[in-house]
Amino acid sequence: MSDQTRIRNFSIIAHIDHGKSTLADRLLERTGAVSPREMRDQVLDTMDLERERGITIKAQTVRIGYHAGDGDDYVLNLIDTPGHVDFSYEVSRSLAACEGALLLADAAQGVQAQTVANAYLAIEAGLEVIPALNKIDLAAADPERVTTELVNILGGSPDAVLHLSAKTGAGVDRLLETIIARIPPPSGDAEAPLRALVFDSYFDAYRGVVCYLRVVDGSLGVGDAIRFMATGETHDASEIGYLTPKAVPVGRVGPGEVVYLITGVKEIDRIKVGDTVTSARAAAVVPLPGYTEPKPMVFSGIFPTDGDDYPKLREALEKLRLNDASLSWEPETSRALGFGFRVGFLGLLHMEIVRERLEREYDLDLVATAPSVAYSVRLPPGEEQVIKSPQDLPEEHRGVSEPFVRAMILTPTEYVGPIMELATGRRAVVGGMNYLSPERVELDFEIPLSEIVFDFFDLLKSKTKGYATLDYEPLDYRQADLVKVDILLNGQAVDAFSAIVHRDHAEEYGKRMTTRLRSLIPRQLFDVPIQAAIGGRVISRETVKARRKDVTAKCYGGDITRKKKLLQKQKEGKKRMKMVGSVEVPQEAFVAALRVDDDL
Known about the structure:
Distance between the termini: 58 Å
Number of domains: 5
Structural class: alpha+beta
Helix content: 25-40%
Strand content: 25-35%
Number of strands: 31
Radius of gyration: 29 Å
Largest sheet: 8 strands, antiparallel
Number of helices: 13
Shape: globular
């Protein structure tokens, strides 16, 4: 076991693309955790998706050794966290396993929305926060301005803000010494009953469920009988080890250690993130606080294109849930798409990443419906019902409430006008303004979640030339004039295209959907009306014209009535066919119509 006073547990938190993963690379390189031959960019980003997109999706942990200037050897447990707002739950879980956090800000871009949000997360968790400026080697860097912004958020002295470059390695040595000096060693009683927090897990096809633990009290050794306090499961610890970043098995670990644990459990639902591991023989009485359950913000139906893949999709979701505790789902049936699941996500990027992981890692071909939010419906007896899909909206109700969020936008001052115009056009209630410096301002809004899940972020970036950043947190439900818009093909409602929208935007939505479907649905042997309707009132209509056979081709003359008779016969035949014919909508049309982009 390591000397508890020589352990430092810390995470790196920052806005997206401010250099967290690059700094982690330099720390691994400087401490010799990774040899020059094995070194590559984004060492801790193990997923192909992370490398392709250049973002961190999963928090990763690594143990590194460091010989400090005082002559002592220290153990540093580093947790590299995501920066995107959709993955802030991953950040909060990582912070629960640490005593300190390195708050990184880009010396050129300055403090961004997620920088502020992550700083508050770390302060609320009671961590020692070390502010640092990255990318000081850039020509556009303005260290004095960004230092002032950081001090305005965290307080303290400008001299306490470290200056470094993760790309060149400048300032990394001073950073390591500061981590050892300022972050406290973990507190914990080595003689107390074992208590260890499960802060992450994943499924290995050969070894079963692999847990990441932060040992708080007591000690854990190979072969010990352990119990998971939330589920009551009892198993033996078959392997314990450090991630350096390679897995290195060890015999026994004590308080403050961050390790992986393998128990041989194959059933996915037996181990939960946030659970407390204790000894089966001398069990602890009080479990660790764990985590608050994440609340999904966006819901979408996910269906296999081949109905036979339904069991495979369920199994894939169960395995992914082990690695992503914020994922939730329930079975859903659609007349148009068959059997699938209504899946809850933390945001649009989270939805995109999950869908791509399901298709890549589990070899599935999927169709996803347009994302929606959860609504609260007041029923006639006075009860409240939360619905996650437009199809669940009852015919009779006393009102619909929608979720509001508090949005924080950080922007250069010259873009305040366009942002105000964008926000008020999305039914936002404008709050306060806080100037971090003469050039940068923080704007606060209260805005319906449904107004920002589609294209708000893209429009915000385009109106501010990419300089503005957004962060949001849930508030409450508020009543609004919301209606359900149904899309009808040949008089039949297609449930996959239904949406709940504000009455002021209903006609616009209906017009866009009918226009898009007219270009996507192949021509039939009869006219196909495409209608958007609120209840029994049609608000928009387009028509897919029928394929016509030239029935008069063989008429080379004679009386005109011969041609009229043939055309009339064709018209009546098409009328009969329309009454009994069903419109075939190909899967490609569903995918294209439900795609989230600037047109919709």
